[in-house]
Amino acid sequence: MPSNTASSVKAPKPSYRCSECGWSSPKWLGQCRECRAWGTLEEVAGALGGSGVTRAVPAARPSSPARPIGQVSAEAARARPTGVGELDRVLGGGIVPGAVVLLAGEPGVGKSTLLLDVAAKAAAVARQRGEGPVLYVTGEESASQVRLRAERIEAIDDALLLAAETELGALLGHVEEASPSLLVVDSVQTIASAAVDGSAGGVTQVRAVAGALIAVAKERGIPVLLVGHVTKDGGIAGPRVLEHLVDVVTQFEGDRHARLRLLRAVKNRYGPTDEVGCFDLGERGIVGLADPSGLFLSAARSEVPGTCATVTLEGRRPMPVEIQALVAATGAGSPRRTTSGVDHARVAMGLAVLAARLKVDASGSDVYVSTVGGARAVEPATDLAVAIAIVSAAQGVPTPPGLVAFGEVGLTGEVRATVGIQRRLAEAARLGFDRALVPLAGSQELREVPGMRVLPVSHVGEAVGAALPRG
Question: Which residue windows does the record flag with biased composition (Low complexity) (predicted)?
Fold first, then answer.
């Protein structure tokens, strides 16, 4: 009988892998079961052998022998300051050579302006140290447009090189010629590789471009700053694997109608992820704010009824915020409840608590609660300041000068403990506040803050009585 050995060998079974999250499936599906993305499963030809297991990979000679960890030098991974203090704060002291940082944000928030300013300051530092220039590659604008922005924000330096490219090969050629000490790419979604199918910004192109830039960064020890677009849902555009490949992922946030911009680290292999950088967006560009209290506190906070200051925590950073409230007679059948910068649901709950526990009834009045300077005060620790501001507005009695309050208000009216009391007190004292209302629970463990009188309270009625003695 003729041998059927060849025909009996099973052909390799195809497998399918999600280009967004890397999830694998033995058959094609329209939607990824892991990340729920549609149309992202691609066939991986020959990934599995006839037995259904991964093919064996032969051993290869390592590029360098393994050494005891104590003998490995850490100098190459030391962070170097960029010249922008707020960015260095978020990155953990500076940028590490060979690190790839992804900066994401909504259109118009100021990503390109920030990185152009960073590139100019880094170029000045590199020139002083005798290092290579800074290479800024733009794929969204022409070189002339970037030059105009650089003039406006005073970001022109002889050590800052500018190139307008949208092809990966040309970009790598610029890197080869310039040997930069820092590479800025704006943006990763506009660069395409001729060796990969698909249009710029597609899943395959973004993965290939990011992989090539990461390889160059690690091989040459060049730090790379990448601008990333976001989707309408707020996620970073492109494959999810992009966030796993880069070393640092940051988010640039801010309201278009406000000057304040916040930079947060979502992922950081070289530092903390709970630091926040503050920037002021003006006509001359973006300026770091080591002390952003001027944007959040108004000069008239102690003279007008309906105001109360508090201190929120953005990661580990205390941020002063002024809460303003207005209680006015309604001109319609249904009173309005309008909020800006605060949690609408918590304000509604606070109004119910004040009506039930303190008999402060605002059911027939319009109530407006807002923050100053576009700040966000959504954590529960701001409940007490919101309640005091509302009662102050309803009674027409201003809060005394130098008062700050923080604490969570429960449905029974009790003031609950909150985290970071000591840091909040220290920041309030630095800004000139001399009187603080804090939750009674946990106040015994607080250390004395020079120049600050701490008043522990256990109920919102007690807090209102201490803040508004004439109320």
Answer: 57-68
